[in-house]
Amino acid sequence: MIAAALTTDSFLERLPVLARDTVTGRLPESWRWMAGSLLEIIAILAGFGLLFAYLTLAERKILGRIQNRPGPNRTGWFGLLQPFADGVKALTKEDVVPAGADRVLHFLAPVVLVAVSLLGFAVLPFGRHLVAVELDTAVLYFFAAGTATELAVFMAGWASHNKYSLLAAMRALAQLISYELPLLLSVVPVVLVAGTLSTTKIVAAQGGWSLGFVPHWHVFTPWGAAGFVLFMVAALAESNRSPFDLPEAESELIAGHLTEYSGFKYALFFMAEYFGMCALSGMAVTLFLGGWGAPLAQLEWIPSYAWFTAKLLVLLLGFIWIRATLPRLRLDQLMKFAWKFLVPLTLLNLANAAGWSLTAGWTGPLQLVRWAVALALVAVPFVVLGRTLSAGSAPRTYRFA
Amino acid sequence: MLGSGILQGLLVTAKNFVGSFHDPARYTTLEYPEVKPALPEAYRNFPFLVCDNATDPLGTLRCVACQICEKECPPQCIYIEKSRDKKPDATGKPQIYPAVFAIDTSVCMSCQICVEVCPFDAIKMDQVFEVATTDRYAALLLDRGQLTKPNTYFHTIHPTEAAEVDARLAADRQAAEEKARVAALAKAKAPAAPQAPAAPVAKRDQTPESAP
Ligand code: SF4
Ligand code: SF4
């Protein structure tokens, strides 16, 4: 992946690869592969660990500002040391395991959850030359690995020997499995149009600009925009984030499957949630937002990993913004939303994308027809489905408020 | 349309986010230990005793240990012991003073009844709210020395009420002086015109009390 392009790239672009090669260059030939992989793992762990730490801080600060208060600002300058203070606190807390709990499973659940949620990062192309593992079936691998989180959540709920945990675990299973479907179905159009399951090739397929300034990102096509929104909604649900945070609904279930966890194990769950969120956002960037590609040809001198990070951060801030805005859904609303709304829309979107790739050769006025049909295929079902599903339930009138 | 409510909601939160950086009406948080809150004038918590002269607080207490507040206090948290001797008060008149005056602030419920019933404007409500201590018995039982604060302090915390009290006290004092002057005049005239036979007897009874 490195050899050919390396010579033409700027120094900053090559920097991570060069850094790795200087370290591995000192080792005997047979060890280099191993050392390189280890370095990549360390880089991902450190990078996303730090991102996790500061994401928690950013989330608390932004939520605070949205609720018109300052948020944590006492630990260090602007509260910048808060994540470390939280880490020390989590480490020094007593680790309570309920008497009736299955000790092994109880211990294993957070570990498995974190491990599994880290797997996805392996196939994300963070930059032009930055992908830990280049797989031909990277997209498939990513979602297959991500599905295992459901198992860990259920482990936590079952092993805790607590009614709230168990209820939450059952909710989590229902939710995660229901939203797995729209999540995957919204990815299929990308695979269909790009014609590959490899993340690097999907990013490469989005390179280039039409008219000199409109990037060929999938999100700028009708089916891509719809797919992106559907993917992000399903990703919200997959990462247990508000408004889909039913498994740990604190007002109903104490803390859901986290009820019986304390200290560092609790922090691990938290970490896994953020890792999952980061991984899914990274996947959304890769699939729909052109991966590490720059939005304008003139901006290509900025290294590709910076673009990837910027897009990732924008999506993560979107997650936080949504969390600050929307209240939690009810379980039946959640299921209805997935099965009656998201799944049909993703299926239609798949057909739409198929039509789009069949009509790729159309030019001139036919191009306009192609756009109009695709846009109609996105907008009309959305409006019609929305109308029929929300008929009778919205807008609500509150009589005693 | 489906989703328009979500967009409206996102707009509201975004407005709050941006507004909290430049709009003090939205961002109302005071970072307390550094920034002290501006308390409303009517805020009150525990009573304090007013003295007229800050340099001699215990000597110029307005309280005359009449014990009305002690009797009226609903949770009975005031304890007063009268003095055996008399000391001149701010106006120079000898008065009984409280030898012990203590309020148990752990019991006080800030009802202000003691203030309402005091005929001498000697007890008023304070605004000190940083009353945390490490000892919940002795440290919360405030004695005479801790309770006494000068009238100028009263002016800083409740300016309107203090001005009103000062005006009333001054008017009372003036009325008393006027009365004393009239009485003195009448006494001076009395030997010259002894018309009312019963009056001098009554006067003779009163004078020793009010004269010194
Ligand atoms: S404020 Fe009320 S409770 Fe407190 S000392 Fe005065 S009368 Fe008693
Ligand atoms: S504070 Fe007022 S009511 Fe209470 S003993 Fe003193 S003078 Fe009497």
Provide a compact summary of the structure.
The complex is a heterodimer of chains A (401) and B (212). Chain A has 401 residues and is mainly α.
Task: Please tell me about this protein's structure.
The complex is a heterodimer of chains A (401) and B (212). Chain A is mainly alpha-helical. Chain A has one domain (96-378). Chain A has 14 helices and two strands; from the N terminus they run H-H-H-H-H-H-H-H-E-E-H-H-H-H-H-H. Chain A has helices at residues 3-6, 11-25, 29-66, 82-92, 103-119, 138-159, 163-194, 199-205, 222-238, 250-253, 263-288, 304-325, 331-358, 365-390, and strands at residues 209-210, 214-215. The longest helix of chain A has 38 residues, at 29-66. The model of chain A is unreliable at 1-5 (pLDDT under 50). With 212 residues, chain B is of the alpha+beta class. In chain B, helix 5 packs across helix 6 (159-189). Chain B is built from seven helices and six strands, in the order αβαββαββαβααα. In chain B, strand 2 (78-88) and strand 3 (94-104) form a beta hairpin. Chain B has a single domain, classed as Alpha-Beta Plaits (2-Layer Sandwich). Chain B is elongated and about 100 Å long. Chain B has helices spanning 4-22, 68-72, 113-117, 144-147, 151-157, 159-189, 199-210; strands at residues 47-51, 78-88, 94-104, 123-125, 141-142, 148-150. The A-B interface holds A 62, 65-70, 73, 321-322, 324-326, 382-383, 385-387, 389-390, 394-395 and B 1-3, 5-6, 9-10, 12-14, 16-17, 19-21, 26-29, 31. The complex binds iron/sulfur cluster (SF4) (2 copies). The site of one iron/sulfur cluster has 14 residues of chain B, from helix 3.
